[in-house]
Design goal:
Blueprint (H helix, E strand, L loop, with lengths): L1 H34 L5 H12 L6 E2 H8 L3 H13 L3 E5 L7 E5 L1 H16 L9 H9 L8
Antiparallel strand pairs: 1-3, 2-3
Helix pairs in contact: 1-5, 2-3, 3-4
């Protein structure tokens, strides 16, 4: 009986942890949509990767596309959108003009900083986690096709 109880409680704790992870994900999406509603998830994933690498400089367009986890053609379209919105800029490599890098602009840094501040200040406000909200959040993820 004791093992069964331990197993049941262990499963419950794991399920609670998974629900918390879904909650954080839903909260992050909700706040990102408030900060920059015109930027889709693909663009946000690239912005966040650029932000993580901000201290080390720029990243290649190929790396930004890979960071988005979306198909390359879709990701390149989003890079163009981010550039038109003034969130990223293209920088050519001084040693090899064929190589193009992406950097966050000050406006891009401000958008991400605002998102981070809201996530911190609101302490991930509660969003009702329902089957519908989970399915809705999962639909924003890229579709992967087997290689």
């Amino acid at each position: 009986m004791r093992d069964e109880l331990h197993t049941a409680l262990g499963d419950h704790a794991r399920i609670e942890c998974e629900i918390d992870n879904v909650q954080v994900y839903l909260d992050a999406i909700a706040v990102r949509r408030r900060v920059a509603p015109e930027v889709e998830e693909c663009g946000w994933l690239m912005l966040l990767d650029l932000y993580r690498n901000h201290g080390r400089g720029s990243i290649t367009v190929s790396r930004a596309c890979a960071a988005s986890t979306y198909p390359t053609t879709t990701a390149i379209d989003h890079v163009s959108k981010l550039s038109r919105k003034g969130l990223v800029a293209y920088v050519k490599d001084s040693a090899d003009q064929r190589r193009v890098y992406l950097v966050l602009t000050q406006q891009g840094i401000n958008v991400i900083s605002e998102w981070l501040a809201l996530m911190h200040l609101e302490a991930r406000r509660q969003v009702e986690v329902t089957a519908g909200s989970i399915v809705s959040a999962l639909r924003t993820l890229p579709r992967h096709t087997p290689s």
